[in-house]
Amino acid sequence: MLLVTIDTLRADRLSCYGYARATTPNLDGLAREGLRYTHAQAPRAKTTPSIASVMSGLYPHEHGVRDLALPLSMSVPTLAEALSRAGYATGAIVGNWVLTDARSGLARGFELWCEALPDVNAVPPDGAPERKAASLTDGALAALGLGDAPRDGAGPARGALGRDDRPWMLWLHYMDPHGAYDAPDEHRVFSSGAPDPIPLEDPTPHPLHRHRVASYNAPPQTRLEDGRIDANAVRDRYDAEVRYVDAQLGRLFDALRASGELEHTLVIVTSDHGESLGEHRYWFEHGVYAYEATCRIPLIVRPPGGCAAQSRAVDVSLVDLAPSLLRWLELAPLSPANELHSSPGAWLFDPAARTEGVLRPVYSEKVEGAELAGAVQIKAVRVGDWKLIQRYAARRAADGGAGAITLLSEELYELASDPAEERNLIDAPPAQAPLASLRRALARFVEADTSLAGLGELLRRQREGLEQREPDAARILRALGY
């Protein structure tokens, strides 16, 4: 079993998801032999909370990882532990600094855990280390006995995962195409032509969106003579990163196919979250909203032996992967909570299953710490082509503790005709809009988050604790905008 998560990968930037540019020929080929889910969602547009959901089958309010650098509790069972108990050889190679075990707590259950980050000054603006796609693929080939140990010394050794006849599970987390967008030159083949200058300052106020530009992800080559950033030039570089990681995955898929291993391997490719490339006045980052730009993700499943290509327009979440996979393998669920989400079951991996007409809610959120009166917390639900977003703030109680949460605003979008979520329909909802059922579903999700009212203060205290324990880690997170 091969599980690939690609950091910061938007679904609509893959050519197999309809993008006009040929960014992903290898993932396109994988999709032609498998199932392509068009309505997949990340529960949170930050890496650690989303990957914790992949490994636990739980939403962030259930597994407790609400932010970066907050490790998953030892009390939360994981997919790797379940597979290890079932006799699988388990391995992981991660290329993102926030997923190192000290900061994520995700090494449990993996007999091979490789977190070496040889690219030591890679992620701006503060030089967080990472492992780039070519090195990570070298590591994957070595782990499976299909290549030599990586020459950069990042490991693992050849055959580290395949030393016996046990079934195997290998998780790979590629950091590309997270900023900086600096793919090798041979992948920078796209040019948008006319510049799209970003205003230096917010030209007009907006009730929901603040002018935010992660300028550290815009290298000097994307600057215009007047100092403004050419957004199109930066988007071209993002697309080059997508093309780069796709090429490296092609190396891995080709080696698996040539060895005969691919025909016996379940392959799952997805992302932890997307990237905002200018939507809602937010450029070249993620984490502050719950819009589709950062919460819609690709999900491609190739069953062993492949199958006829299928495009499945059914709502799924990263939360569904672990419980559905264990059900497909006829293994016990990780926890009773996995059964509470009406997860799709084995049909997520079954090409013979019928999914037409299946409508089910999937959820996303944005949470933030609070310095004084509270933070704006966002909850979102998607059902089919409809999405409801609600913003909340916590009011302090008279004794200074957490009080009740207050609904600040709502947004309603019909995604089939408005995929960029530009037309908020909440003030005049169409007759066909399932607004009442969306509100009920989101109310249940909000009610289940029992820590929501005090969450801003809790996150503030946790960040202060990180400042004391790991000041360098806290400094890097601040520099990254977190």
Question: How is this structure best described in words?
Answer:
- There is one protein chain.
- By secondary structure, the chain is α/β, with parallel strands linked by helices.
- The protein folds into two domains: 347 residues, Alkaline Phosphatase, subunit A, CATH 3.40.720.10; 94 residues, Arylsulfatase, C-terminal domain.
- Helices cover 25% and strands 21% of the residues.
- The chain has twelve helices and 17 strands.
- The longest helix is centred in the middle third of the chain and has 29 residues.
- It is globular.
- It starts with a strand and ends with a helix.
User: Helical amount among residues, as a percent range?
Assistant: 25-40%
Number of helices: 12
CATH topology of the largest domain: Alkaline Phosphatase, subunit A
Number of domains: 2
CATH uppermost class of the largest domain: Alpha Beta
The second-level CATH architecture of the largest domain is: 3-Layer(aba) Sandwich
**What topology, given as strand order, has the largest sheet?**
4-3-7-1-9-12-2-13
Mean pLDDT: 92
Q: Biggest β-sheet: count, sense, barrel?
A: 8 strands, mixed
What structural class do the secondary elements suggest? alpha/beta
Low-confidence spans: none
- Count of β-strands: 17
N- and C-termini, Cα separation: 33 Å
Helices and strands in order, then pairings?
Layout: E1 2-6, H1 25-31, E2 35-41, H2 47-56, H3 60-63, H4 79-85, E3 89-94, H5 101-104, E4 112-114, E5 119-123, E6 128-130, H6 133-143, E7 168-174, E8 212-213, H7 231-259, E9 267-271, E10 276-277, E11 282-285, H8 292-295, E12 296-302, E13 310-317, H9 321-328, E14 362-366, E15 377-383, E16 386-396, E17 402-414, H10 435-448, H11 455-469, H12 471-479
Parallel strand pairs: 1-7, 1-9, 2-13, 3-4, 3-7, 8-11
Antiparallel strand pairs: 2-12, 5-6, 9-12, 10-11, 14-15, 15-16, 16-17
Helix pairs in contact: 6-7, 11-12
